[in-house]
Design a protein that fits this description.
Layout (H helix, E strand, L loop, with lengths): L5 E9 L3 H7 L3 H7 L7 E7 L6 E8 L2 E13 L3 E6 L9 E10 L2 E10 L6 H21 L2 H4 L2
Antiparallel strand pairs: 1-7, 2-3, 3-4, 4-5, 5-6, 6-7
Length: about 150
């Protein structure tokens, strides 16, 4: 198997400012509503230790199976950069790395998510679709709580 890391990126623009979008990646209350969740799934548990070296764990029940997403925070630089490892539910020897970069814009911010992955067997188009859906779920969660950013 090829062990050369590959990268893919997706971007999304949000009406919320960068500091609010950044915080939604680290807040247990919100993360459990959108991060690594699926419309057909049910959140079982979300825990976050939002510090460099801290970990996160999100457990969802889907189709009778428990799916666990977990990893470690490697860099937390509010409100512009977040780097964390990701052990997806499919067993693999090395974690993926996820970089979140937020760029302030006059209307809110632009988020670019870059995924470095080692398992070349996974479909890149499916991963892009999954991460795009994830960013759309984040946008929906932000829209459910407009007071979080309208006062900024």
């Amino acid at each position: 198997m090829d062990r050369t890391p590959q990268q893919l990126s997706v971007s999304h623009c949000f009406e919320a400012p960068a500091n609010v979008v950044f915080q939604y990646w680290l807040d247990e209350k919100h993360v459990g509503q959108w991060l690594f969740t699926h419309p057909d799934g049910q959140l079982q548990h979300a825990s976050i230790d939002a510090k460099v070296g801290g970990s996160y764990r999100i457990v969802e029940r889907r189709n009778g199976r428990e799916l666990v997403h977990c990893g470690e925070y490697l860099q937390i630089s509010p409100p512009h950069q977040l780097l964390f490892s990701l052990y997806p539910p499919v067993a693999q020897p090395e974690p993926d790395l996820v970089w979140i970069t937020l760029l302030p814009m006059p209307f809110g911010c632009e988020l670019t998510l870059t995924l470095q992955l080692y398992d070349s067997r996974r479909s890149k188009s499916r991963l892009i679709d999954d991460w795009t859906r994830l960013l759309m779920a984040l946008a929906a969660e932000l829209n459910n709580h407009p007071a979080d950013y309208q006062q900024n």
